[in-house]
Amino acid sequence: MEDWTSNPMNAVTVGIALFAIVLFIWIAVLGGRLKKLRKQYTAVMGNTGVTNMEDVIVELKQGLAEQQQANTELKAQLIEMQSTVTKQKGKVGVIRYNAFAEQGSDLSFSIAIINDEKDGAVFSGIHSRENTYVYAKPLEKGQSVYPLTPEEHKAILEAK
Fold first, then answer.
1. Could you report how far apart the first and last alpha carbons of the chain are, in Å?
2. In sequence order, which residues have a C-beta less than 8 Å from that of residue 158 and are 6 or more positions away?
3. Tens digit of pLDDT for each residue in 23-57?
4. What are the tens digits of pLDDT across the range 68-80?
């Protein structure tokens, strides 16, 4: 019986078989890498139905530009709202007092309605037995062109 190593065709056949096995292993490794790459591609592309990466990038860039424009508009609105809020006259201080010590009780009052910059108005009601007189004085930065009473100053300080 003849040894298989003595025939040169047997050595070539074994070499080709080993080469085929190596190629098969290499193809399997490349197939795994391709599967991983396809999964990443599908994750990036999503369900857009677009097969061209350039179209997706252009679409993303346009979306980003729209978001930046909307963000700029919102910032401008926020600045406008903040400046409007500080000008709103929402701070109120109320002081009740007895304007005439010899009669009645604390039926007179001073009400200050101001904003953060202490602009607004102060209203005072002086109650006597027969009548109540109401006065209004404009305020700018906590001061008025008309003289302010101590009770009106207290009302302005109380308005926080």
1. 114
2. 93, 94, 95, 112
3. 999 999 999 999 999 888 888 777 666 667 787 78
4. 999 999 999 999 9
104 φψ region: left (φ > 0), alpha (ψ -120 to 50), beta (else)? left
* Alpha-carbon span 80 to 73, nearest angstrom: 11
- Alpha carbon distance 72, 75 (integer Å): 5
pTM, entire model = 0.52
- Helix, strand, or coil (residue 131): coil
Beta bridge partners of 132: 127
The secondary element (H helix, E strand) that includes residue 151 is helix 150-158
Question: Is residue 93 within 8 Å of 101, Cβ to Cβ?
Answer: no
Q: Which residue intervals of 7-96 are DSSP H helices? A: 8-45, 53-87
